[in-house]
Structure formats: structure tokens, C-alpha cells
């Protein structure tokens, strides 16, 4: 064993900071040699150094700890016992908290943890203690460069040598590493930090694991270094200082820029979790003016593309390709570049780093995306394209063969179609004239042939998807597609008109749906198709005009509906000038029909005389052709702008009034559109058959054409002297056994009323009073608050229940949004907040009528009308009147629940959603949307809104009685599910109010637990738990 005096001198020589580095190194070597040669044991050394390791003198303690650590570094292969290792690593772990002696502690931990297994290693438990002490005690970025480097080496060692030990630290470990590496500037340290990130992400491969929540922060730290450059200056980016990588002058660093760049690239591509952040950054930097940044971006993209996988890169393939093209364009435009006969990979480029990297990335993307690869080649810029025109056409042919033959491979088929659309868009945008001609011949013409051929091997819906998709890739393509579609439509219509071909009818319906839903919206959005929009409806009218007699015997209703929809959309998208041409053509065809002898003399006097109404007698026996002409004419009227001139308006009004009495709904909708769009009192028009809104309403309300008998003649009946409205008398004088004209009249009035309501006209009150008179026909009508006249003649017998129901359902037409007419798409005049105003006007009328009604039938119809109004009113307006509305709302629900004949499940469900909105609204600002509301209203905790809690509390027993009755509703699962959800919300009411009803609710819920639908059973379990807990809630007060 070494003499104590000699050992003490060696220790003192190292610890003494005044000694030269040479002397200190010599002392260290001698001490290490003594231990290595077993002259001195490790335990003996520690005992001899005890004073130096524990002194309060910071300098001596730091030097002593560093000496012990350096000795251990020299003894990496010297076997040590487990007890000795445990004691030493424990000492250095504790010293990590001693910032004055931190360097020795770091060196000691590293020396022990880097030992080979043959010489004895630190246990997992001790390694975990080192990691925890590091994370708790070290602020890495506050340390000097050398100490930071040691910290990073220790972190790297922990991650590489003890991965299973540190992985359970999870969020704490990731956060600590983020904090340690943030804002690092030294190149040597950065090499370590980049590698630490690379190893760290491999420790947490699960995309939804601990790394996911830190991915954005971790990548933000890395992104500050891209692209790598050394500097002594400060750079700014959007007002923020960029990190500087210092390269000390005069210091020969082994680390080069390329080394750092490669290390950063490996960190970028280390995990697919970085994909949402890395790819956009790299694409952005690819447009940099710095050549080195472009080159690095391409290299990084290649690496990331390979590591992230095709699924994640697929969404960026188009953006990557566009960036590659830009990079190639710019690189080829550099003055230093020239073309030679020798090529790079056969593309004719001189050696160029950016072009080379771009092509390598292109190859990578092509290999990952088969279809996209061909698409990329096809959209290569013409002047640098790696393929000839013939090869370009071969690519298009390949895609077209997939479209026509491989339609059973859904994913491949859709990828091929998307590729064709993208190719078409690209060559159209960049005016690649030669390729456009090839595309027209190979793709567009063949796609058009698909719908005109009788080959039914390929499903027709796929044909239409393909033709509409290809059309959207460019204006010129769409012009050809539209022409091909129209030719196919008119060819099939001819087959239907002449032969009544069933297959042609089915094809035409789908063609018209494609034209209405896909082609016309794209045309409207992109503009420049006025001629096309005008051509289609005009040709429809020309074809009908040329077919003197036809009979559609198959799918007549479906075909006519599709025709009307296409007609309305085409007319609506036209300019006012084109609309005038279309409606004039339509009027000429209408007036040429023998069933519609429209005479301008008929429009000169009001009221009409019976002898002027000869067309009425012909309405009963309309031919199929005349039915189509009338319906399509009504479609044109529905779609035109308010400024468009309608010929012979007064006669047209009378024609529509007459035909609606026969149940012609398009005529009623056209009437509603006309009164909605008419101008007000005269602007001085001199055209005899022009008509203002007031004149149109006089025709509708004064003529009293609602007394219709089964003889087909319209009889005039004495009306009210003031001429301001139309009474219930006119509706109920018809033959009792022929109720259809009365129902049709009310249905027609509902659309007229809707047109008035949308524009906010006062005459809507007259219309609604007619509906209420019908509802109250077997009760008392003298209670109507807005009644402006008394009935001159009472009905001899009450109206039938079906007529009353039609009058109640008219309120649904008034308030609901319509897709077929009277909407903004068809140029309707819509006043803001019209639903709220109607709700505020009608509910004060309906509530007292319900209370005073002596007839159970009338009362149920009043409830039905109220339900329609409440369902269609925005929730914000309902909430303001919640206290008054809850009783009537509950009565409506009970009535609809008990109605076993009509089973109006939609109204019941919509009304129940209103109740759920009241129960769960939090701030009184919610808006009610019946379709989406069911999916979102119970996403919250179900706590009752404080604003409406009082109204619900006061009626708690009524609400619960109603909801428990709906739990067993047999006709609709959503009603049962929503009722149970409402009961869950009710469980949050004050304990004293709901406890008496606890047994009732639990008993009802027990039945829902056996419901055949799983969703209801799940909600029932929640409800039972919520209500079962009410028994113990009193203990908390």
C-alpha cells in the first residue's frame, strides 16, 4: 500500500489550483496507477480523500470530487465490487445538487455509468436515481460550455445504456430534456443534443404515447437550427432573434457544418410524429434564396419521406411535387448551368447538386406512391420534362384503363381519378398546349363516351363521378363535358318520350342529378358559362315543344322531379337577361298547349268571369306532356330573380291558382315565389300585364276560388265587402264528401303565406287567420285576436279532421326551410329574423286559443300548429319565453306521444330537442339546429342553465312525467335516447324538487335498461346512476 504521506502529497498536488496543469495531470496518473496495480484500494483512496470531499471550502471540495471522478475515468476496466459501485454512484448522484462541485459530479457519474459489464456496472436503480437527480437539480443552460457538454453526455449515456430504466419517467424526462437543450448554441453540444433527440424519440415509439404531447415543443426547438450555419452575427426573423451557432476564431473544430446538418437531419426524421411540423417547414425553406438552404431542404425531405412512410407523406405529395418543380426551374435558370449531351440519370442535366437532390426526392416519392408517381411524371414542366408526349399519353392511357377496367379496386380507382384531375388542372393552369390536346383526346373524349355508350359493365354512378371530376380540372374540359352530358340527357329523353324506355329513364335521372349537384355548382363558382347555362333550359323547352304527344309511363315522378331540379338550378344561375329569354320561351310553349288557352284579355278585369275560365274544365284531364309543361314552367318561375319579367302575370296567377286546387304542388310553390318577389305599388309600368304585389294579392285573396266542386267548375261565392281577405266560409262551402280541393287550397295558401312571411308582409296575418279558422271550425272562432271580419255564413257542417290537420301542418310549411323553393339560392326575398317575429306574433295568439278551446280535436290541432312553430324557431328566441312555453311544449309532446294514428315522429323528436336545449343551455346564447343538435347538445356535463333553471324547477314534475312517458316511445329510437338524456339533466335540479319523483324515474329507467337499442341502454345506465345518487345528496347539505 502506498505511504500515506506520499498519497497525501499527490492528492494535494491535484487539489491545489496553483499547481500547473502538467503537475496536476502527473499526480492524477500516479494515483490511478496505484489503484490499477492494487497498491491502493478504492476504499483506501476515498478514506484518504475524505477531508477534500466534504470540506466547506468550495474550491478544494470541487477539486477533490473532480480528482475522484478522474481517477474512476482512468479505471474503466478495473473490476470494482457492487458495494463499491453503489457507494460511489450514490455519492456522485448527491453531488449533482452541489453546483460548486458539479463538474466532478458529472465526470464521476459518466465514469461509473460507462463501465464495461466485465468490470462491474451501475445498477438500474442507481441509474434511475442519477436521472431523477439530474432532472431535479440541473439547469443546463445556465452552465458553461464544458459543463453543458458533460450534461449532454450524461443524458446520452442514460438514454443509450439504460433505456428501460429512464423510460418510465415519461413526461418528466421529455420535459427535462426539452428544457436542457433549448437555445443551445455551441456546435459540440449541438451534436450531442441532436443525437439525444434521435435516441429519445426511439424510446417512445407510440404515436399517442408521452412524446405526442411534447412533439410540437420538441420540434420547435429543433427547427430553430434549420438551416445550419455558423455565424458571429445576430439574425432576425419576424422580429425574433435567431439562435447563433458560434464558431470560435482560431479554434480548430473537428465538427463541420455538414456534420451538424446530418445530425439535425437524423433528428428531424427520427419519428413520424414530427411529420405535421417538419414537412411544411422544409417546403417553406425550399423557396429560400440561399442555395445551401435549398439543398438541405431537399436532403431532409428525402430522409423524412423515407422514414415517415407513405401514408403520412401522401397528404404532402402534391406540395412536395410542386416544390420540386420550382426548385428544378430555378436551378436550371442559373446562368452557370448549361445543357450537355451527357445526362444525369437520362434527364439531360449537367451535374447540379440541387437538381440531383430534387430528383432523388422525386424518385423517393414515386417509389412510395405508385399512382402519384405517374402523376408526377405527367405534370413535369414541358421544357424539362423527362418524358415525351407519347409517354405522356401512355400515362394517361394507363390511368384511363384503371378508370374503365379496375373500378372494383376502389382505392386504386379513386387515386387514378384524382391523378387525372390533377394532371388536367396542372397542364391547364400552365397552358401546356400540346399536352392539353393529348388530354382532350385520351381522357375527356373517352370519359364523355362512357355516359353515351350502352356498356353497363362499369357502374353508372362511377361513370358520373369520373365525368364530373374530370370536368372540374379546367374550363375547356368542362365545356366539353357539359356538352357531352347534355347530348346524353337529350338522347335518353327522346327514348323516353317515344318508347318509354325504363333504362333510359333511370340513366336520365342520374345524369340530371349529376348535372344539378356537381356540374352546375362548379359552373356557378367559376363563371364564364352564361351560354351553357342558357342553352340547357332552352333546349329542354325546344325538345318538349317538338314532341307533340308523349307519355312517360316509367319513373314519371322521379324523372320529372330531376328535370325540375335541373331546370331550377340552371335558371337560377343565369343572368337576368338570360332568364327573360328562358321564361319567354317557356311561356310560348305553355301558351301553345291546347290545355292552356292563355288570353291576355283574361288579365284585364278583376274579378274573372266564369266564362273566362274555360281552362279550368280542361285541368281535370291534363295529358302527360301538359303536366310536364306546367311543372317545368313553375320551376322556371320559382328560380327567376325578382327583376325578371314574367309575361301575362295575372293569367299565370290564375292558372297556378286553378291547378293548385287539383293538388299541383309546383304551382303552389310558384305562386309563393311570385308573391315573394313581386315589387310593391306601382313604379309606373305601362305594360298591361305587369302586376304589383298588391294586385297579385287582390287576385289571390279576392277571387275566392277556393269553393271547388267535383264538377270541375270554379264557382264564385259572395265575399266580404271590404275585399281585404278571404274567409273560412269560402273554404267550407264545398261538397262535404270532396275534401281534397279544400286540402289542396290550404296547402297552396301555405306556400303563398310562406312567400309573404319571408319578405315580412302584413298580409301573412290574413293567411294565418284562415288556417286558425279551419282549425277552430268545430269550435269557437270569435276568440281570434286578429280577426278582422265576422263570418257572413256559418258552415253547415264542420270541416273534416284531415282538413284541420292540413291547416295545422301549414305552419310547418310557413316556418321550415325549403330546398325546392323560396330560398336564397332561388333569389327569394328574405327578411332577417322573420322566424323570431312570427313566433313572437303567433304564440300569444295560440296560447289563449288552446286554453279556451272546447273541442279536443281543435285543441290537438292547435297544439300541432304550436309544435311546428316552436320546432322551427331558433333556440335563442325560445329561451327568452321558456317560462311561458314549457307547459305548452310539454302538452304538445304528450299529445304527439298519444297520437297513434299519424305517428308524426319527426315533429315529436324536433320538439323534444327543443326541450333538451332548454335543459342544457348554459348561457342563453345557443342556437338551435335540429339535425346537428342531437349530436352536440349532450356533449356538455348536462348542468342546467341558471337563466332557465327557474322555469324548469317550477314545472319539474310535469317535465319528468312527460319524459318518463317518452322513454317507451316505440316508433323512434332517438326519441327514447333523448328522453333519457333529458332525465339525466333533470337530476341536477335542487334535491327537494326531484326527490319525490325519484322512484317514478328509476322505475321507468329500469324498462329502458332492456331497450333493444344499445345507445338507449347506455344512456339508461347513466341515468340510473345519476338518479340513484340523489338519495345520498341530502347528506351534503
TrEMBL record:
Domain MMS19 N-terminal: 46-329
UniProt KW GTP-binding keyword: no
Cited SUPFAM superfamilies: ARM repeat
Gene3D superfamilies on file: Leucine-rich Repeat Variant
Domain MMS19 C-terminal: 555-983
Record keywords: DNA damage, DNA repair, Nucleus, Repeat
GO terms under biological process: DNA repair; iron-sulfur cluster assembly; protein maturation
Listed GO CC annotations: cytosolic [4Fe-4S] assembly targeting complex; nucleus
One Pfam family hit: MMS19_N
Localization: Nucleus
Function: Key component of the cytosolic iron-sulfur protein assembly (CIA) complex, a multiprotein complex that mediates the incorporation of iron-sulfur cluster into apoproteins specifically involved in DNA metabolism and genomic integrity. In the CIA complex, MMS19 acts as an adapter between early-acting CIA components and a subset of cellular target iron-sulfur proteins.
Protein family according to the UniProt entry: Belongs to the MET18/MMS19 family.
Name of the featured protein: MMS19 nucleotide excision repair protein
Species of origin: Fagus sylvatica
Origin organism lineage: Eukaryota, Viridiplantae, Streptophyta, Embryophyta, Tracheophyta
Amino acid at each position: 500500500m502506498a505511504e500515506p504521506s506520499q498519497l497525501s502529497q499527490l492528492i494535494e498536488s491535484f487539489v491545489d489550483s496553483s499547481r500547473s496543469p502538467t503537475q496536476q495531470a502527473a499526480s492524477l496518473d500516479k494515483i490511478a496507477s496505484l489503484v490499477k496495480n492494487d497498491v491502493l484500494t478504492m476504499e483506501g483512496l476515498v478514506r484518504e480523500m475524505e477531508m477534500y470531499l466534504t470540506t466547506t471550502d468550495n474550491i478544494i471540495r470541487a477539486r477533490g470530487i473532480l480528482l475522484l471522478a478522474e481517477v474512476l475515468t482512468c479505471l474503466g476496466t478495473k473490476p470494482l465490487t457492487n458495494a463499491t459501485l453503489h457507494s460511489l454512484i450514490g455519492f456522485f448522484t448527491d453531488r449533482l445538487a452541489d453546483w460548486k462541485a458539479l463538474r466532478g459530479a458529472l465526470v464521476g457519474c459518466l465514469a461509473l455509468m460507462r463501465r464495461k459489464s466485465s468490470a462491474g456496472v451501475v445498477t438500474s436503480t442507481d441509474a434511475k436515481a442519477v436521472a431523477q437527480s439530474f432532472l431535479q437539480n440541473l439547469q443546463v443552460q445556465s452552465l458553461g460550455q464544458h459543463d453543458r457538454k458533460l450534461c449532454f453526455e450524461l443524458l446520452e449515456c442514460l438514454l443509450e445504456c439504460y433505456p428501460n430504466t429512464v423510460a418510465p419517467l415519461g413526461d418528466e424526462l421529455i420535459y427535462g430534456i426539452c428544457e436542457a437543450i433549448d437555445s443551445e448554441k455551441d456546435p459540440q453540444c449541438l451534436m450531442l443534443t441532436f443525437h439525444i433527440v434521435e435516441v429519445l424519440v426511439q424510446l417512445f415509439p407510440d404515436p399517442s404515447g408521452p412524446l405526442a404531447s411534447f412533439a410540437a415543443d420538441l420540434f420547435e426547438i429543433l427547427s430553430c437550427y434549420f438551416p445550419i450555419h455558423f455565424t458571429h452575427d445576430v439574425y432576425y426573423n419576424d422580429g425574433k432573434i435567431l439562435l447563433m451557432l458560434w464558431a470560435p476564431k482560431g479554434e480548430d473544430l473537428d465538427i463541420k457544418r455538414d456534420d451538424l446538418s446530418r445530425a439535425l437531419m437524423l433528428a428531424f426524421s427520427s419519428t413520424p410524429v414530427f411529420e405535421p411540423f417538419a414537412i411544411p417547414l422544409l417546403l417553406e425553406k425550399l423557396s429560400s434564396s440561399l442555395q445551401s438552404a435549398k439543398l438541405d431542404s431537399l436532403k431532409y425531405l428525402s430522409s423524412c419521406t423515407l422514414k415517415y412512410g407513405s401514408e403520412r407523406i401522401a397528404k404532402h405529395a402534391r406540395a412536395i411535387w410542386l416544390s420540386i418543380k420550382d426548385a428544378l426551374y430555378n436551378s436550371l435558370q442559373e446562368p452557370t448551368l448549361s445543357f450537355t449531351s451527357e445526362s444525369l440519370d437520362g434527364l439531360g442535366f449537367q451535374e447540379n447538386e440541387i437538381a440531383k437532390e430534387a430528383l432523388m426526392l422525386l424518385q423517393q416519392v414515386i417509389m412510395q406512391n405508385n399512382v402519384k408517381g405517374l402523376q408526377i411524371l405527367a405534370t413535369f414542366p414541358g421544357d424539362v420534362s423527362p418524358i415525351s408526349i407519347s409517354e405522356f399519353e401512355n400515362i394517361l392511357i394507363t390511368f384511363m384503363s384503371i378508370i374503365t377496367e379496375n373500378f372494383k379496386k376502389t382505392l386504386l380507382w379513386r387515386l387514378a381519378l384524382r391523378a387525372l384531375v390533377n394532371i388536367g388542372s396542372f397542364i391547364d393552369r400552365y397552358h401546356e398546349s400540346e399536352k392539353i390536346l393529348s388530354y382532350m383526346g385520351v381522357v375527356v373524349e373517352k370519359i364523355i363516351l362512357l355516359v353515351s355508350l350502352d356498356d353497363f359493365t362499369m357502374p353508372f354512378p362511377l361513370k358520373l363521378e369520373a365525368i364530373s371530376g374530370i370536368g372540374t380540372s379546367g374550363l375547356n374540359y368542362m365545356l366539353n363535358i357539359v356538352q357531352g352530358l347534355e347530348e346524353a340527357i337529350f338522347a335518353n329523353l327522346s327514348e323516353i318520350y317515344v318508347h318509354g324506355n325504363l333504362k333510359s329513364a333511370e340513366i336520365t335521372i342520374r345524369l340530371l342529378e349529376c348535372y344539378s349537384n356537381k356540374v352546375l355548382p362548379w359552373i356557378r363558382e367559376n363563371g364564364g358559362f352564361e351560354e351553357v347555362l342558357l342553352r340547357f333550359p332552352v333546349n329542354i323547352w325546344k325538345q318538349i315543344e317538338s314532341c307533340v304527344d308523349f307519355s312517360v309511363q316509367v319513373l314519371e315522378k322521379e324523372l320529372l322531379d330531376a328535370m325540375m331540379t335541373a331546370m331550377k338550378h340552371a335558371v337560377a344561375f343565369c343572368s337576368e337577361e338570360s332568364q327573360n329569354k328562358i321564361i319567354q320561351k317557356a311561356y310560348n310553349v305553355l301558351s301553345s298547349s291546347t290545355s292552356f288557352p292563355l288570353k291576355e284579355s283574361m288579365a284585364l278585369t278583376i274579378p274573372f268571369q266564369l266564362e273566362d275560365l274555360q281552362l279550368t274544365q280542361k285541368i281535370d284531364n291534363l295529358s302527360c306532356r301538359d303536366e310536364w309543361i306546367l311543372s317545368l314552367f313553375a320551376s322556371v318561375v320559382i328560380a327567376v330573380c325578382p327583376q325578371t319579367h314574367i309575361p301575362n302575370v295575372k293569367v299565370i296567377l290564375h292558372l297556378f291558382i286553378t291547378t293548385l286546387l287539383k293538388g299541383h304542388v309546383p304551382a303552389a310553390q310558384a305562386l309563393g315565389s311570385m308573391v315573394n318577389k313581386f315589387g310593391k305599388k306601382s313604379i309606373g309600368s305601362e305594360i298591361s300585364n305587369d302586376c304589383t304585389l298588391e294586385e297579385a294579392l287582390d287576385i289571390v285573396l279576392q277571387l275566392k276560388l277556393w269553393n271547388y266542386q267535383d264538377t270541375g267548375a270554379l264557382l264564385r261565392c259572395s265575399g266580404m265587402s271590404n275585399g281585404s281577405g278571404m274567409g273560412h266560409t269560402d273554404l267550407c262551402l264545398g261538397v262535404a264528401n270532396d275534401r281534397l280541393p279544400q286540402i289542396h287550397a290550404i296547402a297552396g295558401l301555405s306556400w303563398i303565406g310562406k312567400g309573404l312571411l319571408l319578405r315580412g308582409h302584413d298580409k301573412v296575418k290574413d293567411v294565418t287567420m284562415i288556417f286558425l279558422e279551419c282549425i277552430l271550425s268545430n269550435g269557437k272562432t270569435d276568440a281570434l285576436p286578429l280577426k278582422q271580419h265576422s263570418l257572413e255564413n256559418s258552415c253547415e257542417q264542420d270541416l273534416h279532421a284531415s282538413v284541420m290537420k292540413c291547416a295545422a301542418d301549414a305552419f310547418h310549411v310557413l316556418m321550415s326551410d325549403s330546398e325546392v323553393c323560396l330560398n336564397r339560392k332561388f333569389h327569394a326575398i328574405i327578411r332577417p329574423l322573420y322566424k323570431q317575429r312570427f313566433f313572437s306574433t303567433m304564440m300569444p295568439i295560440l296560447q289563449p286559443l288552446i286554453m279556451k278551446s272546447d273541442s279536443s280535436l281543435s285543441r290537438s290541432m292547435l297544439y300541432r300548429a304550436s309544435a311546428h312553430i316552436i320546432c322551427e324557431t331558433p333556440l335563442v328566441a325560445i329561451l327568452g319565453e321558456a317560462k311561458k312555453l314549457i307547459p305548452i311544449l310539454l302538452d304538445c309532446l304528450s299529445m304527439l306521444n298519444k297520437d297513434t294514428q299519424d305517428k308524426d315522429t319527426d315533429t315529436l323528436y324536433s320538439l323534444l330537442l327543443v326541450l333538451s336545449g332548454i335543459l342544457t343551455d348554459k348561457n342563453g346564447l345557443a342556437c338551435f339546429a335540429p339535425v346537428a343538435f342531437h349530436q352536440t347538445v349532450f356533449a356538455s356535463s348536462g348542468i342546467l342553465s341558471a337563466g332557465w333553471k327557474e322555469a324548469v324547477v317550477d314545472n319539474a314534475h310535469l317535465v319528468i312525467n312527460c319524459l318518463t312517458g317518452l322513454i317507451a316511445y316505440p316508433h323512434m329510437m332517438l326519441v327514447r335516447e333523448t328522453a333519457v338524456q333529458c332525465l339525466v339533466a333533470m337530476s341536477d335540479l335542487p334535491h327537494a324538487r326531484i326527490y319525490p319523483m325519484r322512484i317514478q324515474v328509476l322505475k321507468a329507467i329500469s324498462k329502458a335498461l332492456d331497450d333493444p337499442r344499445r345507445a338507449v341502454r347506455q344512456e339508461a345506465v347513466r341515468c340510473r346512476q345519476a338518479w340513484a345518487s340523489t338519495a345520498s345528496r341530502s347528506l351534503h347539505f
